[in-house]
Amino acid sequence: MARNVVVTGGGTGIGLEIARRFAEAGDAVVIVGRRRAVLEAAAERLGPTVTPLVCDLADPDEVEAALTTLPARIDVLINNAGSRETGFGAGPHALLARWRGDFERNVLTAVLLTESVRDRLTPGEGRVITISSIAALRGAGSYGAAKASLHAWNHFLAAQLGPSGITANLVAPGTVAGTEFFGPRLDEAEVSRRAARTLLGRIGETGEVAAAVYFLASPEAGFITGEILHCNGGELLGR
User: Fold this and answer.
1) From CA 27, how far away is CA 64, in angstroms rounded?
2) What is the reported pLDDT for 177?
3) Domain range holding 63?
4) CA distance 207 to 60
5) What is the CATH number of the domain that holds 108?
6) Residue 75 has pLDDT above 90, yes or no
7) Considering the domain boundaries, does residue 196 fall inside one?
8) SS3 10
9) The Ketoreductase domain covers which part of the protein (predicted)?
10) What is the largest CA-CA distance in the chain?
11) Which of 78, 87, 132, 226 has the highest CB neighbour count under 10 A?
12) DSSP state of 17
C-alpha cells in the first residue's frame, strides 16, 4: 500500500535522494522547501507521485498555511531541511545572527512542522525521521549546537509519540558528497582530508543516507525509536 510521505528540504542533495527512494517505491511524496523553481524541477524529475510545496518552515504563519496542502494522513515525515549560516562577519550582532539563524533553520524547521502535523501521523505505523549531523557530536559552533538540540528534542518526541505506536529517530551523516552544504569548500584536497578521517577511506553518498532513512521508515524498524543512526563511515565511533 502506498504511503503518504513528507520530505522537507526535498529539492536537492540528501532530501532529493530521500524523496527519490520513496517515489520509486510507489509512495506519494510531498517535497517542501523555500525555493519554488528548485522544488518544481525536482518534482518533474522524480515523477507524478511527487508534489512540490513552497514553505519557509521557520515561519509559523507559512507552516500554518501549508497545512491546507499537506496530506490529512502522514505515514512518514522526514525533517531534512537545514543549513549553516555563514558570512555574518565579526562582533556580537553578527554572532547573534549566526546562532539565531542556525537555530531557526535547523531546529525550528523540524519542530514547527512536526508539532503542527502530530495529529496526522498514522497511529501504529507513523515514522518521524530527522536529519542531524556528525557536527552535533563532534562540536561545530552554532551549527553543531543546533543539531545537538535536535537530539534532545527527539528523545522528548519519541516519548510523546510512543504510546500511539509512532517512532521518532535521527540519522546523523558525516561528510556527504552531492549536497549544497559545503559549496566550493569541498574541493579535491578537502575530500581527501575528510576521507582519511573515516575507517572506509571515503566520504559518503546521498543515496547511502537515503537508504538509512528508508530503513527507519520501514515496518522492520518498528521497534526502534528515540535513537540516532550514525552514517559516517566510522569517522566517529561509540556515541
Assistant:
1) 24
2) 86
3) 4-231
4) 31
5) 3.40.50.720
6) yes
7) yes
8) coil
9) 3-179
10) 54
11) 78
12) H
